[in-house]
């Protein structure tokens, strides 16, 4: 008999996520020879400890049910463990960039089917200082937006709540800049930048082609840095983001690396998988195929 550990955030997705997971469990327990244990998170760090428990107790799979924060904590718990249990993700957050790119289903029927099929892929995991991440590290203008939108607003309006907040923030943030020193393999940049993104997949902040050539298992990050420029040129750059053409603009730096360090003249708070993280300086590295992920 296989053992599955479900780690869920009861406040994510207006409790719809946990109801989905209970129904999925009912379907599985009817048809499959498995047992399932549920752990609800109550505070920051709970999902890390739950995932570590799942690894140490020999569970066959950890199912993380929640938004970006819950998924990130589950990844950290697994990566901190000597024995690394397989991970499944039931996304219940607002944007779910990583899950969307990996085509992870959120419907009861399709998620149950994925669990029964048991197909997995090895995926890269990033590490910033001493914290792991599955999708993205970013810093600079606009990276505060996910943290400014109230939970109730996200529940009602979904991803459009972020777009509305971004429209409000543009007049104030378009003129911001940060003096960055960026060092990676064979490359050193000293520049005045608006924002930077270090990503494991193309999908970041609701933009499906922010880093258009990124691959989840190539052992490399895709890095995009937007230089400070005037608002008209920035608008020109932004209009290319839907197609991924923004990376061809001379005011945009785009490259691949397995390791990168970033510092700034002024202390800059870094966003890690949609959650506030460290302040600069930061050292970011990649663990090639660090986690085994359940996929459709």
From TrEMBL:
UniProtKB keywords: ATP-binding, Kinase, Lipid biosynthesis, Lipid metabolism, Magnesium, Metal-binding, Nucleotide-binding, Phospholipid biosynthesis, Phospholipid metabolism, Transferase
According to the lineage, what is the superkingdom? Answer: Bacteria
Q: Extract the GO molecular function terms from the UniProt entry.
A: ATP binding; ATP-dependent diacylglycerol kinase activity; metal ion binding
The entry's protein name is Diacylglycerol kinase (ATP)
InterPro entries recorded: ATP-NAD_kinase_N (IPR017438), Diacylglycerol/lipid_kinase (IPR005218), Diacylglycerol_kinase_cat_dom (IPR001206), Lipid_Phosphate_FormReg (IPR050187), NAD/diacylglycerol_kinase_sf (IPR016064), YegS/DAGK_C (IPR045540)
* PANTHER family linked to this entry: LIPID KINASE YEGS, SPHINGOSINE KINASE
Q: Which family does it belong to?
A: Belongs to the diacylglycerol/lipid kinase family.
